[in-house]
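To the wet lab folks,

You asked to see what we're planning to order before we commit. Fair enough. Below is the target structure as tokens, and below that is the sequence we designed to fit it. If anything looks off to you, flag it before the synthesis order goes out.
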């Protein structure tokens, strides 16, 4: 009897043990995550001289939010990233002892050296929120500037910071871009608790003039953060473009979670206007937040977001790091029966992540893969299935859903075990979905990119565990990975 209990105990321990193989548990292979420590929002996304820069909110000292600084990674293809040393660090005022954290913001390529701080034109300038705090109390948020003469490797903070201060505790997340028609810089940023986006203009990145405000409108169930403003082509109408204002706030499933919404409208260089009457959302999963688009990329608009949700972000059971970023997505607009809607597709460089096309799901060997699947009403598939554990994706009552209630570790936080869903319009006979699975993240794209679900999952085993139910048909299977 005693021996039996002992064996049962050993068996339980083996089953609960973290999965072990060459992949560090939960470490995504084709999504960027820092080697160690905490990250949240992407910052300063910019392209310069063959390199894409991903700066990111980063705590150099630990696995939870704090000491916010800008981490840094670069890539030549948007898929394979190399992490570099911390770019801009939190600092302390020697006289007062108050600290300034480097909150979210932008980087621009200053073509003309408009502010005359750099040694040469084409230097990188970052405009970020300087968050002043003392004794764990936020005191003031203002906008500051730093510049780099060596392609973002080292930075100098501008001597006369801040460059914009309206004497508020919450005033943040500047997104700056060049507006060629008026030969000026435009900055969008939020007054979070007033649900307002403010638009400023500047000729030199140093002196800023308020032009207009947008909001409150749309979804105001949670504070607004991380705005962006960009022009997009309308699919199939070569001459037509519209502007999109995106921002982070509440989630389509309600304010227990955070999410992203957007407005489609016009921007005349001074004011953004939108005739939209109901809120529209970027992603219907729980793990897509703080997305912004790259500056200085010609002919396409690329966004990436933080794959996490503030509701449980500090508790997710990852290893020595916490937080990752989505696959970069090319954005567009599509005319639908309801009006213009945002589309998102993995960037074309995603192809480089496909290491092998497989004949069937039975050939899959890891939890990093891509599938193309045709769903019909009542059908679906399981991923990462083993024993009672599974993540389910399917089409039910005209809705695409992702159920992670049995996906593995779910009880590290009470709201994590969720089911995501979105109504597909018009009601589909057949829905083709593209699924990118990468250890602890699943991104599902469908209907030409009109609907996306991004969710984290934390399986306790390392099997691909794919099977289908109902009339679901697998069209294509790829093993996915890093370039060797
Ligand atoms: C959004 C956010 C931003 C802020 C940053 C701080 O996730 O709250 O508004 O700048 O994170 O890390």
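Sequence we intend to order:
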């Amino acid at each position: 009897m005693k021996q039996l209990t002992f064996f049962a105990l050993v068996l339980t321990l083996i089953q609960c043990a973290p999965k072990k193989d060459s992949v560090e548990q939960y470490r995504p292979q084709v999504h960027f995550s820092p080697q160690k420590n905490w990250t949240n929002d992407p910052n300063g996304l910019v392209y310069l001289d063959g390199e894409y820069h991903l700066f990111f909110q980063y705590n150099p000292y630990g696995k939870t939010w704090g000491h916010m600084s800008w981490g840094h990674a670069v890539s030549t293809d948007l898929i394979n990233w190399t992490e570099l040393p911390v770019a801009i660090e939190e600092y302390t005022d020697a006289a007062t002892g108050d600290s300034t954290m480097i909150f979210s913001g932008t980087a621009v390529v200053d073509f003309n050296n408009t502010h005359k701080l750099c040694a040469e034109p084409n230097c990188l300038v970052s405009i970020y929120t300087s968050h002043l705090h003392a004794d764990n109390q936020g005191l003031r948020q203002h906008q500051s500037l730093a510049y780099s003469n060596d392609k973002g490797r080292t930075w100098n903070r501008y001597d006369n910071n801040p460059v914009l201060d309206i004497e508020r505790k919450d005033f943040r997340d500047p997104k700056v871009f060049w507006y060629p028609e008026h030969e000026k810089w435009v900055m969008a940023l939020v007054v979070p608790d007033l649900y307002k986006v403010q638009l400023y203009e500047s000729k030199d990145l140093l002196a800023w003039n308020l032009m207009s405000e947008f909001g409150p409108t749309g979804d105001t169930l949670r504070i607004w953060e991380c705005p962006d403003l960009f022009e997009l082509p309308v699919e199939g109408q070569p001459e037509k473009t519209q502007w999109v204002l995106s921002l982070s706030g509440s989630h389509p499933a309600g304010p227990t979670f955070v999410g992203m919404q957007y407005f489609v409208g016009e921007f005349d260089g001074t004011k953004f206007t939108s005739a939209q009457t109901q809120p529209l959302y970027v992603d219907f999963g729980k793990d897509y937040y703080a997305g912004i688009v790259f500056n200085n990329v010609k002919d396409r608009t690329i966004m990436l977001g933080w794959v996490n949700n503030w509701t449980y972000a500090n508790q997710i059971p990852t290893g020595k790091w916490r937080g990752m970023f989505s696959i970069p997505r090319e954005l567009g607009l599509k005319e639908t029966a309801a009006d213009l809607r945002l589309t998102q597709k993995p960037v074309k460089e995603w192809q480089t992540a496909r290491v092998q096309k497989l004949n069937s799901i039975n050939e899959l060997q890891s939890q990093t893969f891509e599938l193309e699947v045709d769903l019909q009403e009542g059908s679906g598939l399981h991923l990462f299935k083993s024993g009672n554990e599974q993540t389910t994706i399917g089409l039910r009552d005209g809705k695409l859903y992702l159920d992670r209630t049995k996906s593995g570790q779910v009880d590290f936080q009470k709201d994590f075990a969720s089911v995501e869903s979105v109504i597909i319009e018009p009601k589909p006979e057949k829905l083709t979905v593209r699924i990118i699975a990468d250890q602890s993240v699943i991104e599902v794209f469908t209907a030409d990119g009109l609907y996306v679900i991004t969710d984290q999952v934390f399986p306790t085993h390392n099997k691909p565990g794919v099977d289908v139910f109902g009339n679901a048909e697998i069209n294509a299977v790829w093993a996915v990975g890093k370039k060797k």
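Structural context that might help your review: Confidence is low (pLDDT under 50) at residues 9-18. Residues 40-41, 57, 68, 103-104, 129, 172-173, 225-226, 290 surround beta-D-fructofuranose (CB under 6 Å).

Thanks,
Computational group
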